[in-house]
Amino acid sequence: MNEPVRFVGAGPGDPELITVKGMRLLEKADRVVYAGSLVPKTLLQYCKKDVLAFDSASLTLARTHALLKEGYEAGERVVRLHTGDPGLYGALLEQMALLDRDGIAYEVIPGVTAGFAAAAAAKKVLTIPELSQTVILTRLGARTPVPGKEELAALASHRATMIIYLSVQRIEEVVDQLREHYPADTPVIVAYRVGWPEQKFLRGTLDTIAALVHSEQIERQALILVGEVFGEMAPGGEGIKRSKLYDESFTHQFRDAEKDG
Prior knowledge:
By secondary structure, the protein is an alpha/beta fold. It folds into 2 domains: 5-109, 3-Layer(aba) Sandwich (Cobalt-precorrin-4 Transmethylase, domain 1); 114-237, Tetrapyrrole methylase, C-terminal domain (Methyltransferase, Cobalt-precorrin-4 Transmethylase, Domain 2), CATH 3.30.950. It has 7 helices and 10 strands. The longest helix has 13 residues, at 61-73. The N and C termini lie far apart (67 Å).
């Protein structure tokens, strides 16, 4: 029986941020179809020397599917390598639909999305008790529209932590919509090419971030992280609302609260 096609999340760029499972599948792959415009070739270092590697950056959906089908029917181990996580802005659904149509088995291996990698690299957390417990991953509508209920200004009304993909080239529009609900001094981080050698972080507020983006001439491959959680932390963490998990006065399944005296 032929092995299933594997959709593998490559992570945001750093070849060490792929999962162990994803790396092992690359090591065994006979054929890899990868999104060369976003997935660095350094990830192919895990592959065999004689692997058949195809850059899908210039290919249509039909041609990409033909490469997957050809490998599967030849009994090859086939990996479709996606940037970040395949399920987030990865055009995964239409690829799976074609494989289903042709009776080709497949699996999806998750990956580290750039938004989470950006927060980690910037030494920020996405949720802080009593400040933000919700994270919204979204984008501006463009040639690929977003549903009306998901317009950026509508999502901004929640004042949650927000990670905005595929929108930095329209930074002024992003700022205008966010400022309908977020204060002008809300912290913003623009994370450029997260996980790549040229990774860069711009730190500002809704008032200042657009000018910084233009000054650095960032027009693509950048995320916009917005929310109070991205503000500067006081020395020693003074004023931070701590999680109950490690609070000495908090009882839970694995620990009784410590009692004075």
